[in-house]
Structures are given as structure tokens and as C-alpha cells.
Design brief:
Distance between the termini: 55 Å
Structural class: mainly alpha
Helix content: 40-55%
Length: about 80
């Protein structure tokens, strides 16, 4: 398959038009929900499971547990 070769020429591009910046600010891209610290006792086997899975996914195991609880609460709250 033959590649199309771009040929550059000198000259003007024509009239340029400035467009409005409608991208969100970086701070608006990060959704942070308020967190509450609690003390929770879990079985050793559950914690070991989450630690193994979190290591495979390269995320903190606490984040995985929090996501599981959040999804459960969202579904149960419907």
C-alpha cells in the first residue's frame, strides 16, 4: 500500500479565528466525594483477597473495598 506523502508549501494560511476555550479546568475533572473515616473489622480472608486483587490491578486495596461498598449502597438505595 502506497503512503500519501504530504507536500508542504510556503505561504499564508488565511484568516485565523480564535475559538473560545470550552475545556473544563483540571480541578473540575476530579470528582471527590466527602469521605468519613470509620473502624471496621473484616475477616482475614477478605482482606487478603482484596490485597491480592488490588496488587494485580495496581490500586490500593482500601480503594477497592470502598468502591464495592459504594456500588452496593448505590444499588440498594434505588
Amino acid at each position: 500500500m502506497k503512503r500519501h506523502q504530504v507536500e508542504y508549501t510556503s505561504g499564508r494560511l488565511g484568516k485565523l479565528v480564535r475559538v473560545e476555550d470550552n475545556l473544563p479546568k483540571p480541578s473540575e475533572l476530579v470528582f471527590r466525594e466527602e469521605k468519613v473515616k470509620i473502624t471496621l473489622s473484616l475477616s482475614r480472608s477478605s482482606v487478603e483477597y482484596f490485597k491480592r486483587e488490588a496488587k494485580r490491578q495496581r490500586v490500593p486495596y482500601q480503594r477497592m473495598i470502598r468502591a464495592l461498598v459504594d456500588k452496593y449502597a448505590a444499588r440498594a438505595g434505588k
